[in-house]
Write a structure and sequence with these properties.
With about 600 residues, this protein is α/β, with parallel strands linked by helices. Among the domains are: about 230 residues, Alpha-Beta Horseshoe (Leucine-rich repeat, LRR (right-handed beta-alpha superhelix)); about 90 residues, Immunoglobulins (Immunoglobulin-like), CATH 2.60.40; about 90 residues, Immunoglobulin-like, CATH 2.60.40.10. It contains 6 helices and 35 strands. Strands 1-2-3-5-7-8-9-10-12 form a 9-stranded mixed sheet, with no helix packed on it. The longest helix is centred in the C-terminal third of the chain and has 38 residues.
Amino acid sequence: MPKGAIQPHLRVGMVHSSCPARCTCSFYGRIDGAALRTVLCNDPDTSLIPVNIPVDAIKLRVERTAVRRVPATAFYYLTELRYLWLTYNSISYVDPGSFYNLKVLHELRLDGNSISYFPWESLKEMPRLKTLDLHNNRLHNIPTDAIQHLSKLTYLDLSSNRLQTLPTELLDLWPPYNGMPVTSNTSQKIVLGMQDNPWQCVCRLSKLIETAKMTDTPVILMDRVLICVEPENLSGVLFQRVELDQCVKPTIMVSAKKITSTMGSNVLLRCDATGLPNPNLVWTTTNGALVDNTMQESPSEGVQWSIMSINGVMATDAGNYSCTAKNFAGKAIATITVEIAGIESTTIIIPTTASSGTASAGPTGPTATIITSSDQGENVRKLAADEKSQKIDASKSLRDMSIVEETSDSAVLLWTIDGMPSDSPLTVVYSPYGEEDIKDTVETTAGTGKVLLEGLVSGLRYSVCLVAKNTVGKDPCVDFYTLEIIQVEDQNGLLLIMGTAACIVVLPLIALLLYKILGLYSQSSSSPPDPEELQNDSYVTFETITMKQRAMNSNSHPTPPQMWPRRPTQSESDRLLLCSRSSIDSHETYKSDSSRSEFLC
């Protein structure tokens, strides 16, 4: 009994079979001869839930009253109650123990109230509940913990509240999100009322958005007109037309689907997932138990990886381990099987008499000795030795491995066989060098002698190995490089830039050279200059100096005539020009007739 509940022996006097005041009672019918009663309380002045309701009531309706609270164990004695309607009142508080002992209740309606918080954990007291109506209230959110109590509902109305989003786990309760196939069975239909809420259309709401787009689904929406309010770029958009950004369902892959280990060794299991937002990775065992010794990391947006370790492997560690990647858009699961070498049960038919450690195959048939890990005897060692002797050394049987016809995204692997059947299965394992956790495989047979490796990255070093079943020794491997793609467009762009620069430098030089050539050509082709024009253009006109005799005027000593240089002067301006005072020495003259000037203009 929940805290605050009234003990049954204190309420014996409160149990009545008559109809309470301000209520009306009527018979609903009979089951096994017993009358089924319905009670209706709709007096506007009623402010409390009636406490003297007949115990044989199967339907109680408290409608349009002034009731504000639903107290604990308000319906404790109504063990036959199947329908409880508390609609269009003023209820703002519902006690977690309000519905205690309602084991056969099928329908609970609380629509038209002011409930902002509903005690979802109280639903566990109503294991047969199928209908829950909470529309037209003030609910702001549905907690994740409430999901576990909603799995048996077939009708859930949350319309006309203040919900902006939903837990992603809610729609995981029903197909197709729970992994079950979608069928046309009407008994599996789920009715949801989600309209008239201020929905925030983000990735967290992606499953409800996808459900609104589906036409064949067991989840039926009362009203398919669901409209986004936020974000701003999607405000007013119907769910059927919404395309969410940064919302991608996870995809997952594992390094190997099956791992065989020896007793006492350490095993690492890895799974890689992609999705937006980044998925969360969880490891579980065969029975669904969570594995603690794990670690995960996100190297980049939309990529997540996780590693689970098993230290000191024991026989009990054998089994399946599941890696689940989950985000708001959905989830994906991958499974790895771990086997322990030497503990697999092997049945060997040995004709012998029944004795300790044997099992009889029949009254007259031979017995079968079952050799398991518990035997740990000579038979196990012999079987292991025989099995090992039948295996072929892979390093000697597969020879002459080589890579030919390398391209930027493919290569051809060649090999030859020696002592190995041509139909023996081979697995070609290749990966970027040093990245063994990212492997691709190609299945073939030994007799083919070649295989095409596709999906490679250009300019990268790869390692490829041939793995044969039932072989011993080291698997033969070879490394190679793919061709690097030359970016032709980038080279063309570089050449264009270089050519443009060369043109900018060379063209002016060519133009200058042509100009010089044309100038020389024009000078050579012109006529010789006219002497008269040349004289007019000259600064000074030079004339020929002639020799002329001049007698010295001396009365006492006559001298012979001397030759004086003289030139005719055409004009006074020319003479003055020649006798300009460009130098002090040129200005000095002698007045004496007996001596001549040192400088004569």
